[in-house]
Amino acid sequence: MAALEEGFTLSAVPLGAGPHGLLGVEQSDRPDQFLVTDGGRTVILYKVSDQKPLGSWSVKQGQVITCPAVCNFQTGEYIVVHDNKVLRIWSNEDVNLDKVFKATLSAEVYRIHSIQGTEPLVLFKEGAVRGLEALLAEPQQKIETVISDEEVIKWTKFFMVFRHPVLIFITEKHRNYFAYVQMFNSCTLSKYTLLLGHEEKSVIQRFTASVDRKVISLMSLSSDGCIYKSLIPIHPNDPEKNQRVVRSLLLKTVVSGNVRNGIALTVLDQDHIAVLGPPLPASKECVSIWNTKFQTLQTSKELPQGTSGQLWYYGENLFMLHGKFLTVIPYKCEVSSLAGALGKLKHSQDPGTQTVPHFVNWETSRGYGFGSQNSEQSKRILRRRKIEVSVQPPPSKQLLSTIKKDSEKRIVEELCKFLASKQTPDFHTIIGDIVLELLGRHKVEPSFYPRNALMQLIRTHVLSYSLCPGLMEVALEKTDVQMLQLCLQQFPDIPESVTCACLKIFLSISDDSLQEAEINMESVSDYIDSVQEEKMEEQTEILHNGFNPEEENCDNCDRELNKKPQDTAEETTSCPVIPKRAALLRNAILHSAYSEMFLLPHLKDIPAQHVTLFLQYLYFLYLKCSENATMTLPGLHPPTLNQIMDWICLLLDANFTVVVMIPEAKRLLLSLYKFVKSQICICSELNKIEVSFRELQKLNQEKNNRELYSIEVLELF
Q1: Percent of the chain, pLDDT > 90?
Q2: Cβ count within 10 A of residue 551
Q3: What is the pLDDT, as a whole number, of residue 507?
Q4: Strand residues in 73-120 grouped as ranges (E)
Q5: Which long-range contacts (C-beta less than 8 Å, at least 24 apart) are formed by 43-51?
Q6: Do residues 151 and 131 lie in contact, with contact meaning Cβ atoms separated by under 8 Å?
Q7: Backbone φ, ψ for residue 273 (5° rounding)
Q8: Nucleolar protein 11 C-terminal domain location, by residue (predicted)?
Q9: For residues 219 and 229, is the Cβ–Cβ distance under 8 A?
């Protein structure tokens, strides 16, 4: 039997006013709390038992949320995408979505999936899938196209099968439907064509699915009002081949066949399915529960105010829009039996007893001889198996136990063994726990600083600042510039205050200390060496993007700069910092993500002499960029010209009134002034000839009226 209880309104505010209704209802990290994403600008966190909202967040006017917000169960944070490509991550303490972590992706997102036991997955509209951590590490990475042209994703579902994540999504092209199954433990993607059979003229309108150990049961509600079932293997025989699956009739005419909107379905358990829609053409919309095993209607409830055709379920609650308000209807489904399906189940049990179904893993049973030995032998085998398992705890627990008491050398040995073992889906969560355990011991024992172990953990590329915020605090305390450089290069969510604290250390640490440190010098030597070679040759004239530091553009500036022409030439050709400091600034700081609003206040705390040094280095990088036609620095992943100019502007905005009073900075400021003035002159000249270029464009468009060959004389005034 199944029953629908009395429903209640969860939101007192009308929802679903947008063209897409509600975007989604998703489980939060607490079982009684749910994220509701309206089809416009708002995400609301509700507590069902109290029937009240706990928080609400909105994007800015003009921005539109384009996929449902989800909870990252590993961190407790929330994730949403607006305007198809902009990803936001926030927590309960945040108030304004405009001020939380932001990442702009290179492709449009269709959906973010998040369930217990694994990291969130991002499904792009072109069919590619990325883990959240890998995506945040490089938001602008190239996203491949998986589905063919004109294919459109219609529905998607995320499962855990034997602790391994499995994603299925359905696409449609010219009324042909395809199912893609992505297995993440084996990194295989299988494609299936859904054959419609005798109902070829019908259009599939809604999908739902359930999964057992080896098969995905895909159910579809078609325009003829019937529900069909397709069995898709999780482990195909030939993943590379486009295979076919046939649909079979599961339930006949559960909703009116001429209804196109206001219908939905979702699987409740292995024998029950909930359907939303009018059962007859003239009837009102209702929600009903069907027994798929015996093909009987168990219960239904009328919804006189209509629905949006959207249905979600979590635990024992159905969520839907009733009119304009989000409604929750509790339900109960008993163990399926013929008597229960016919409504004749006799409750002969005592009130305090409860029937618990028993499930046997026959594969395990065969392995241990179940069915071929007597009960006492089976019990002895089970006891022996239990003892063996208890003697051998998981590798992660062994490592955590080692961290609490052993030396760093022993910890590093155990860590290498753990990292060499097979990775599980919760690998990055375990890595985060290991880091927290190491930092916890360091806090209790300040002399214990497991630097080598921490460096190995950072190089796994699965950590983030939010997962272990104490890591960079310890590195700052120890002035560990190598660890700070590695964190800045790999962590995508570092706060601006921490970035600025790293910048202070990079600028203030002595040259002798830097020479002893092991720092990644990637690409820095490419232009440092070229500078040293240039200093051996005399430069009669240096032009940088139309800008000559010694050009007679400003009389006052020239008088200052031309007093010591040798110093000026040296300033424009020599790097003001040693190579290792340059590596820290170039490869770590300039590539850091930041918000100008939050970074500026912290830049004001940097001493003026360090600001001047950083400005000199940035000006040097600009001059190196300007020496070639591509306006780029040599090496892999160099900072762009825009990044260099943005940092110059930020430093001047934050510290100009202080820097202008320092004699050492006077020559640099005068050079920057001349640079800006020269750029203004160039822009002015370009604006003057803009009209001429427009006329040339018009003439070019009229070439069709001329012969194949002609001589033209154009006079520009």
Answers
A1: 32
A2: 15
A3: 94
A4: 77-82, 86-90, 101-104, 109-113
A5: 43/69, 43/78, 43/80, 44/11, 45/92, 46/10, 46/11, 46/326, 48/10, 48/317, 48/328, 51/8, 51/9, 51/10
A6: no
A7: -140, 140
A8: 397-717
A9: yes
Q: Which residue has better confidence, 197 or 275?
A: 275
Q: State the distance between the two ends of the chain, measured CA to CA, in whole angstroms.
A: 90
- Rounded Cα gap, residues 436 and 75, in angstroms: 13
Interatomic CA distance for residues 376 and 364, integer angstroms? 18
The first and second tokens of residue 39, run together, are 């089809």
Quote the CA–CA distance of 324 and 305 in Å, as a whole number.
8
| Nearest to 650, CA basis, from 615, 625, 622 | 615
Average pLDDT across the chain, whole number: 80
Cross-strand partners of 37? 24, 43
Q: Are 492 and 461 a contacting pair, CB within 8 Å?
A: no
Q: Is 435 exposed, middle or buried (0-12, 13-18, 19+ CB in 10 A)?
A: buried
Nearest to 618 by CA among 595, 588, 656, 649: 649
- Token digits for 682? 């160039």
Torsion angles phi and psi, residue 536, rounded to 5: -80, -15
pLDDT (tens digit per residue) in 62-99: 888 999 999 999 999 999 999 999 999 999 998 888 88
- 483, 458 in Cβ contact below 8 A? yes
> Given this model, what pLDDT does residue 528 score?
55
Could you give the CA distance from residue 49 to residue 176 in angstroms, rounded to a whole number?
Answer: 43
The string of pLDDT tens digits covering residues 479-536 is 999 999 999 988 888 889 999 999 999 999 999 999 888 888 876 755 555 544 444 4
